[in-house]
Amino acid sequence: MFILKNAWISIKRNKGRNILIGIIILIIACACTITLAIKNTAIDLIESYKSSYNQEVTISFDRANMMKDFDPSGAEGRESARERFDNIASYTISDIESFADSEYIESYYYTYAIGLNGNNIEKAEIESNNDIPNGYGHGKEPNMSSTDFTLTGYSSLDAMSEFINGTYTMNEITDNAWEIAFDGNYVFINQELADYNELKLNDKIILEDEDGNTYEFEIIGIFKENEEGTTESMSMFSNSANTIVTNASAVTKITTNNEDLRTTINPTFIIDSYDNVEKLQDEFYEKGLDENFVLQTNEEEATSGISSIKNINSFATTFLTLTLIIGGIVLFVINMINIRERKYEIGVLRTIGISKFKLTMQFVLELVIISFVALILGAGIGAVSSKGISNSLLENEINSSNERTEEIDKNFGGADMKGGMPNRGDRGEMRGRGMPVVEAYDSIDAVVDIKVLLELLGIGLSLVLVSSIASMVSIQRFTPLTILKERS
Amino acid sequence: MANKKHNEEKKDIILSIKNASYRYSDAEEDDYALKDISFDFESGKMYAIRGRSGTGKTTLLSLISGLERCTEGEIIFDGKSLKDMNLDKYRSSDIGIVFQSYNLLPFMTASENIILSMDANGLKINNKKEKAIELMAKVGLKEVYADRKVLRLSGGEQQRVAIARSLSYNPKMIIADEPTGNLDKQTESEILDIFKNLAHKENKCIIIVTHSQNVCDAVDVIYDLKKVKN
């Protein structure tokens, strides 16, 4: 109590000096708040980006490995290569399920494509062969050129990469489309195919395999392929005009019924860490994956968008460090001057029996009280300023994230379209494909939160203690009688 | 070394200096500021420690007041060696110190300076200001001075405040370093009367470091310090 009382008297007495110290700490606190807010916003954004990108691996054909001993000059070499190519073991759904049963894999999804002919519908006329959606081609590609349509089954929303990346955009959709899309014989068809066959929502289409088995599907959505997705070949229709989108279960039923159908499977595994990819690949080989396949990650894609945020984070760290160093030095010097000015007071207090410890505590407490007030004011000013500064620095990232999120929703039918995408919360697995949660940055609380305040308090008190070292050391070294004699 | 004006029988020794020597930490091995000093101080008496410049008066004051520790020998206060005592507590409770230049805190009032000393001692009194005014009255200062900044007081008044401060926790001994050095004859006489009263009426031991003949004339015992021959 005595220490506090004396500290308070001293603060009131030395108003000028304490206001100066307060202003310096206020500036430091303000700069630190803004910097910490920017840093934390940047870190949150980086984390958001990282979490929005699942750590994924896909199985790719290792063409380089296949071609390493290939001698294209002779017929023998070409024959040998063909033989090797034919002998590459493809993988099935059960293989994928086996691969997915790994400690490194959190979940997985896949697309499953087969070729079928139309029974009550006609193929939209095109000049080129029947196309396979982008991203296909892993494993032995089924020969679908002889069939009218490609039936592509997706195992989940995550697997619908063409909708996510904007190749396809939903034009029309039934009210309950997303509730039933992954269970039963429901399909999304291309607008061009719909126009060609005068099909509309809820119409039934019948497809048949080469053995004449028929399969009926109900149309629950009509999509269009965006222009940038078309090929350079001469064609009236887009590549996906004859692509019919359904769920993987529906395709599995067909392949179970007719095992002779040739299929294309594109699996994507969501893993716990990119660090485990090599171990996972070895595990896949042990489980029977042909060694001409390799695992590829989406790491490059996931990290490419955050380099500017990382730069901002790095700049904020440097700025914070410099602020603290300069602020610390200034405070240290002011404290040194303060101690020299108050040498006589120290001498008197020591002489009347106040211990060095109590005296040191009094000086530190004075600084702590001033700092505390300045830190609160600085945090307040910093909080008001930081939102604008953070948001302007991160504006591009926030805007692009917002646009991307809106775009993806639109591709799936949009929130304003009947039967549009279910709420994001209901499709928690839809975190992938670069959809960071950016709404948080609209709120000031998200910028200067309790974490920032605690960091600021920690920094402030550390700074005060470090700069108080001057007074602590001086008080220990002062000899009261010498001080008083000097003054006399 | 000691010149005793009154050859009274020794009794009630409050402070005893036994073969005390002091050498500054940066001095050579045999370069003593004080060498082999032995004095006894009794309660109820007023002492003067006299000596020319360089004889170690201030050093002895530092040792007695617990601001420094003896290099050799020891100082016994009230039966306990200062070596075994907490010297901060010793200064804030057992002794009072009065300086030539008063050493009051100029930004405080007279009463605040006295209360500060009570606070340093940890004294638990309900109305400290009342006690401060009482102490000021004891040294001849009117209540009206209580709320004055000490810089607005005369030298004699400041010294009275300093004495009142040293009495705030009722110490057994008061050590004064040239307490009348800055004062006129009249004020010097009044201050010495205060010390005499404290010694003779309140049974306190008063030790005054001085080279003033007036002070020496007023005290009961004079100890002379001579320069150490190295």
Describe the structure.
The complex is a heterodimer of chains A (488) and B (230). Chain A is an alpha+beta fold and 488 residues long. Chain A folds into two domains: 2-53 and 306-415 and 430-487, no CATH class; 56-297, no CATH class. Chain A has 18 helices and ten strands. In chain A, β6 (204-208) and β7 form a beta hairpin. Chain A starts with a helix and ends with a helix. Helix content of chain B is 32%, strand content 24%. Chain B is built from seven helices and ten strands. Chain B has helices spanning 57-64, 87-94, 110-121, 128-138, 155-167, 185-200, 213-218, and strands at residues 2-4, 13-22, 34-42, 46-51, 72-77, 80-81, 95-98, 173-177, 205-210, 221-225. A six-stranded mixed β-sheet of chain B has the order 1-10-4-9-8-7, sandwiched between helices. A four-stranded antiparallel β-sheet of chain B has the order 3-2-5-6, with helices on one face. In chain B, β5 (72-77) and β6 form a beta hairpin. In chain B, α3 (110-121) packs parallel to α5 and α4 packs across α5. Chain B is globular. Classes of the chains: A alpha+beta (488), B alpha/beta (230). The A-B interface holds A 2, 5-6, 9, 13, 345, 347-349, 351-356, 479-481, 484-485, 487-488 and B 58, 61-62, 65, 67-68, 88-93, 97, 99-101, 103-105, 107-108, 116-117, 119-122, 165.
